[in-house]
Each structure stands twice: as C-alpha cells, then as structure tokens.
C-alpha cells in the first residue's frame, strides 16, 4: 500500500516541531507517513535565522524575517523550553533566563541536528499555490525551485501550514506621512538600533515590537523615544527619554500631531503596528482569516481547519507560549495523521471551537490571557504523548515576568527563573542587560575567554 504523504510549508520553529514529532514516532518504532517540508529560504529556523536583507531575498522572494540585531528573548527561556530537549542538554551548563537571538537559534538547531530532520526539507523552494480535489481527497501543491528556476507540483494527503504570521506588515496610513522628511519603516524592516543613535524617534504601536524596539533604541543611544498608542498604553514605568502618548493623528512635515492635541518634531518613524495573517499560496476557501489573537476562529484545537481538517495550521495564535506550544500542536497533528487521534464530527468540532472563542472573549487582563493559553496547552498535552511539563509553574513564571516588566522595563531581563524540565536555576548573566551591547553567542557563553580558546569552545558546543 502507498504511504500517506504529508507536506509541510515552512521550516521555522513550527515546521521543525512537526518534523521532530514524526522523528519521535519513528524512534518509538512507528512507521510514519512520507513527509516533505518546503522552505523558501536556504536555511531553517526562520525568525531566529537573522537576515540583514529587507524587501526581497536572493531570488526575489519577499523577505520573511522580522528579526533584528541585538534582539534578546522577551520572555524567560524557561517558558519556551522543549520538554524533550532541555537547555541543559544543549549547552551543558546553566545559562541565563533571557538569551539573545543567536543563542536561541543554536538551541533550536541542537534538537533537530540530533535527528536526520534536514533530509526531509527542500530548501530554496517556495510554495506557490495549493488546491484540493474533493474526489481524490488530495492536495496538489505547486512549487518553485528557486535555485534552478523550475516550477513543478506534487500531491499530498495532508498539508501542514507552518508559514508563520509575523511577516507581512500591517501598514496603516497617517495623513501627511508621505511628506515626512526622515525615514519611515515598519518593524518588519527594522534590522537594529544603530541607525537611530542621536535621533528623536517616533514609534506607533503599544505591543511587543513597540516596547522592544523602543527600549532597544534607547539602549543604543537614541536621543528620545516616543511611543504612540491606539487602544491603551503599555503603561510601565518608563525611564527618562521614553514616553507614551495617545494616537498619532497626522504629520505636517517633520511634526507629528497626537490625539491629545500635543505635537512634536521627529527624525524618524517606526510603525510597530503588527502583522497580517497572509497565505498568498492558498485559495480563499482554505485561507485562515483572522486577526492576531489567542484563539483564531475555524481551527479545531487551534490547529485543524474545520472545513477541511486535513489542512492543519501550526503556530497561528498570538503567543505567550511559543516553542513548547508548537511542539504540543505538532504532536497532536502527527497523531491525527497517523490515525492515533480521531477527530469528532464537524458539528462537534464547531461546538468546541465556539467554547474556546467565548472563553477567549471573556478575558481582558494579561494574567487572564496567560491562564487561557495555559489551559489550551494543557488540553493539547492531554491529547498526545508529548512529554508533560508543569504548565501551571510556567504560567506562574509568565505572571512574574509581567510584574517584572511593569516594575522595571530596563532590568527585567536580568532576572533568573527555574526550569520545569530539569529543575535548574538559571545563571545570573555576567553582564547586566542594559550594559551588554554585544549579542554574539561567543560573548554570551564565554565572556572572559581568549580568542583561541573561545573558538575551540564554540566548536565543542556545536552539536
Ligand atoms: P516563522 O518563524 O515565521 O517561520 C515560518 C517559515 O515559513 C519561514 O522559514 C518562512 O521562510 C517559511 N515560509 C513562509 N512562506 C513560505 C512559502 N510560501 N513557501 C515555503 N516556505 C515558506 N518568540 C519567543 O518565544 N521569544 C521571543 O523573544 C520572540 N521574539 C520575536 C521577535 C520578533 C521580531 C518576531 C516577529 C517574533 C518573535 N517571537 C518570539 C515569536 C516568533 O514568531 C516565534 O518564536 C516563531 O519564530 C514562530 O515560528 P513559526 O515557525 O510559526 O513561524
Ligand atoms: P502585535 O502584538 O500584534 O501588536 C500590534 C500593535 O499595533 C498593537 O499595539 C496595535 O494596537 C497596534 N496597531 C495596529 N494597527 C494600528 C493602527 N492603525 N494605528 C495604531 N496602532 C495600531 O504585533 P507586534 O508588537 O509586532 O508583536 C508581534 C510578535 O513579535 C509577538 O509575538 C512578539 O512577542 C514578537 N516580538 C518579540 C520581541 C522580542 O523582544 N523578543 C520583539 C518584537 C516582537 P491595538 O492594541 O490598538 O490593537
């Protein structure tokens, strides 16, 4: 009998979680389906695989990444730890709770390098279009091999969309912005704070990008940072040099006007106005249409597209939990594909979706949102054999993190948390975050080593 075929779109953390889930089943002695993952870039780990490029890449494809230099984890690493691959196993020593991007990228890669996951990925391959045949119950996926500029298509029984949703900018218009003389960019194109040194910077938005890009520019020497909010301010105790103001209404030349009647001159503007869920390779009836929120409609258990449950979406929620949530989702998705987890009827699925949607609507505070996503993770964990972890403890850490940020937005990354996977208490980092301008893995792991021994150690740590 022919093996089932599973196509995965994207080799970021979600797509890699799906590949890892199938490998885990194989290691447990189960014969899985044939799996192929398509990644339009030349390497895996997107978001975490920093690209200096903006606009388009080597082959003219839109740049996916919104990652920038000097980005440090904005939540404790203990809240995202894989429960089947700990930080201790990877780094062989305790590290701090808030590592920079290259260190997290290294960690993500460690787990998959242990398995032969790379063999399943076709890099430099863009998914152009997908269709579904009701009669054969198969997806046809049209692909472009970017390297040799060749179009071809393949058929699959299941399709996993793991293409991320923090890539296509939401770009609102503000009257007069076209005449603003300085630079105007979206957070998606922000690649580091260096260029804003000594400038007066206006940031629009009041979520994670606004907060982090604002603080980073302050840290790296911007003259002033103003954050302009639409619904509500971030509301932490800002240091002198950063302030929040109501929504921008319009520009007159280099002067920005705000809803409270105030105005000020700026040198540059960064729109931290979020992202669109965008699936240009899917026809309308298969597309997930949602805003960024903790429980997108139409997805049973947050993953199975209710109209067509062979179409599986991973990582489409707004995220407190990240890597461990993608894992928990990928394990359930795998079990469904392998026939170990049976889906209820469409009507029952709809009722379950409605229940989660109503609950999500009822919550407004950040703490309640953490509890909501915690309950969701617990539900996922009950449906597969992904190694259990103490989700309640993780929720407590998230709440402590929220408080830490409120108390001091410049020092919260100096705090230490305890792993729920190994019990290890995180190191206090060798340098306070505000004083650390170097985010390389070498500097992070081996601050005081000579150049030569540093090179040796880095070789050893590469798995
Ligand atoms: P992505 O990482 O976006 O990966 C999707 C992959 O799909 C990409 O490799 C892309 O190239 C590929 N792809 C897309 N379209 C196609 C196509 N048509 N054909 C083939 N391949 C395609 N999370 C944290 O836990 N901690 C943090 O500190 C943190 N910081 C963040 C900072 C920024 C600026 C952003 C934007 C996000 C951050 N996140 C953070 C959240 C982050 O989104 C997740 O950690 C994670 O990267 C999401 O993984 P993903 O695989 O779902 O999506
Ligand atoms: P987001 O959380 O979706 O927030 C979007 C923001 O844009 C909201 O504040 C929203 O305001 C605002 N907005 C949208 N349209 C607007 C308009 N027309 N006018 C004014 N404001 C508008 O997106 P994000 O902040 O880019 O975060 C995306 C992801 O990146 C998150 O997962 C985050 O964790 C991650 N991230 C992490 C780091 C890090 O430090 N590691 C840094 C950056 C980003 P309303 O509240 O009014 O809707």
Automatic annotation (TrEMBL):
InterPro entries linked: FAD/NAD-bd_sf, Flavin_mOase, Flavin_mOase-like, FMO-like
Enzyme Commission code: 1.14.13.148
Keyword terms of this UniProt record: FAD, Flavoprotein, Monooxygenase, NADP, Oxidoreductase
Cofactors required: FAD
Enzyme class: oxidoreductase
GO molecular function: flavin adenine dinucleotide binding; N,N-dimethylaniline monooxygenase activity; NADP binding; trimethylamine monooxygenase activity
Domain of life: Bacteria
UniProt cross-references to SUPFAM superfamilies, sorted A to Z: FAD/NAD(P)-binding domain (SSF51905)
Family, per entry: Belongs to the FMO family.
Official protein name in the record: Trimethylamine monooxygenase
Provenance organism: Algoriphagus ratkowskyi
């Amino acid at each position: 009998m022919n093996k089932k075929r599973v196509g995965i779109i994207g080799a970021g953390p979600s797509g890699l979680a799906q590949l890892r889930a199938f490998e885990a089943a194989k290691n447990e002695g189960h014969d899985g389906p044939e799996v192929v993952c398509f990644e339009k870039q030349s390497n895996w780990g997107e978001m975490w695989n920093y690209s200096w490029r903006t606009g388009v890449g080597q082959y003219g494809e839109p740049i996916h990444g919104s990652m920038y230099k000097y980005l440090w984890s904005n939540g404790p690493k203990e809240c995202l730890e894989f429960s089947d691959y700990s930080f201790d196993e990877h780094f062989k020593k305790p590290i701090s709770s808030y590592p920079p991007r290259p260190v997290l990228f290294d960690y993500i890669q460690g787990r998959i390098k242990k398995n032969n996951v790379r063999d399943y990925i076709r890099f430099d391959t863009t998914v152009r279009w997908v269709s579904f045949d009701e009669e054969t119950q198969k997806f046809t996926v049209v692909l472009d091999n970017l390297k040799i500029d060749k179009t071809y298509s393949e058929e699959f029984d299941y399709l996993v969309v793991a293409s991320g949703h923090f890539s296509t900018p939401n770009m609102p218009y503000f009257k007069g912005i076209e005449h603003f003389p300085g630079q105007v960019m979206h957070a998606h194109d922000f690649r580091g704070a260096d260029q804003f040194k000594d400038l007066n910077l206006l940031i629009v938005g009041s979520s994670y990008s606004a907060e982090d890009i604002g603080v980073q520019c302050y840290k790296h020497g911007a003259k002033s940072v103003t954050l302009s909010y639409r619904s509500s301010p971030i509301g932490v105790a800002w240091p002198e040099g950063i302030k929040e103001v109501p929504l921008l209404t319009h520009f007159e030349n280099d002067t920005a006007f705000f809803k409270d009647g105030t105005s000020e001159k700026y040198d540059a503007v960064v729109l931290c106005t979020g992202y669109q869920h965008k699936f240009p390779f899917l026809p309308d009836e298969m597309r997930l249409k949602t805003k960024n929120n903790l429980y997108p409609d139409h997805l049973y258990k947050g993953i199975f597209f209710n109209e067509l449950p062979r179409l599986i979406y991973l990582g489409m929620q707004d995220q407190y939990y990240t890597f461990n949530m993608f894992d928990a989702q990928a394990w359930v998705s795998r079990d469904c594909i392998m026939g170990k987890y049976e889906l209820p009827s469409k009507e029952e699925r709809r009722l379950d979706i409605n229940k989660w949607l109503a609950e999500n609507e009822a919550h407004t505070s950040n703490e309640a949102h953490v509890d909501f996503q915690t309950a969701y993770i617990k539900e996922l964990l009950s449906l597969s054999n992904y190694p259990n972890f103490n989700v309640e403890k993780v929720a407590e850490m998230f709440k402590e993190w929220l408080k830490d940020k409120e108390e001091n937005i410049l020092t919260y990354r100096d705090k230490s948390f305890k792993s729920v996977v190994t019990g290890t208490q995180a190191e206090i980092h060798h340098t306070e975050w505000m004083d650390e301008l170097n985010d390389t893995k070498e500097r992070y792991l081996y601050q005081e080593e000579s150049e030569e021994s540093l090179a040796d150690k880095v070789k050893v740590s590469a798995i």
